[in-house]
Amino acid sequence: MDLSTAIADVRFSSCLMNASGALCVTREELEALGECRSGAIVTKSMTPAFRQGNPEPRYYSFPAGSINSMGLPNLGYPAYARIIPELRRFEKPIIASIAGLSPPDFLEAARAITAVSPDLIEVNLSCPNIHGRPQIGYDVEASRALLLELKDIVTVPMGVKLPPYFDPVHHEAAARMLQDVGVDFLSVINSVGNGLVVDPDEERVVIRPKGGFGGLGGTMIKPVALANVRAFWKLFDGRMPIIGTGGIVSGTDVFEHVLCGASAVQIGTALVDEGVGVFQRLEQELSELLQRKGYASLSDCRGTLREL
Ligand code: SIN
After folding, report:
1. Which residues of the chain have pLDDT under 50?
2. Is there a contact between 46 and 74 (Cβ–Cβ < 8 Å)?
3. What is the pLDDT, as a whole number, of residue 144?
4. Which of 126, 127, 152, 225 is the most exposed place for a label (fewest CB within 10 A)?
């Protein structure tokens, strides 16, 4: 089954890849993504300097999904600028995710990483886990200002990782801004920020940072992810490449994202739970499903979700 895809004219042999944040911080983790059946290598969101991240425990998985407050632990962009050229030997697209605690951080990371030519750059506007730093993606004008500055620096296709929006007015405002800026692809969605998971036996929270508040991922957020993929697919008339992220644990989940309009998907919680073998399993499940339904490739069903 042909599971290949393209994002902003970059070819991917498989539409399945890791979500930034999931098993992609260290050189070893990035190399493991190179060696497995993932269609790309996506880096952890990088900041100017090494970050230890938030205190542990900061990740908790449970049947409905996961909650995390990692706090952007990463090696710092100088390390990724050294590692990225070495990852080319795996001959799959490399997506560098950049982040920051302030706009100048993003610009600094963008300059250094553009110089080593990853295939795409994903600008993370949506980390919910830095105390005192609101998610930029919820401020349309701040996002516009930052992205316009980044557009002057970045010379490879540039996309944005967005937070979930919950109201059509917010989807429309974000889409107008992204159209004006001229981004090349969207990654939707980041975790559903600032949820709270309670352990009723222990009568306490399950992660330490921010009093237990953290980003929700996994199965429970799939409807929110699908709604965001679908909303942006429609607002851009199917012309904006969308990477769907959120709640993918089976081939059927991938199929649902594609029906809503995703060109590719990223795997977070299921990758952390299962390791890099998840890509082969999902590939097989998706191929079998498409075959059963009589589709020859992903493009045959992308965006074709029927409405009643
Ligand atoms: C984190 O490092 O806290 C998660 C990254 C993100 O949600 O963007």
Report:
1. none
2. yes
3. 98
4. 152
279 by Cβ neighbours in 10 Å (0-12 / 13-18 / 19+) ranks as buried
Residue of minimum CA distance from atom 6 in ligand 1? 127
Per the structure, the count of domains in the chain is: 1
Among this protein's residues, is 15 annotated catalytic? no
Give the model's pLDDT for residue 121.
Answer: 98
- List the one residue out of 144, 152, 47, 56 whose CA is nearest residue 104: 47
**Residues with Cβ < 8 Å from 151, sequence gap 6 or more?**
158, 181, 182
Question: Domain containing 105: what range?
Answer: 5-53+72-190+218-300
69: exposed, middle or buried (Cβ count in 10 Å: 0-12, 13-18, 19+): buried
How many C-beta neighbours within 10 Å does residue 234 have?
15
Ligand 1 centre to CA of 204 (Å) is 23
Q: Is residue 197 part of a domain?
A: no
SS3 272: helix
Which amino acid is it at 250?
Answer: S
Give the CATH number for residue 264: 3.20.20.70
Q: At a CB cut-off of 8 Å and minimum separation 6, what does 40 contact?
A: 12, 17, 18, 92, 93, 94, 95, 119, 264
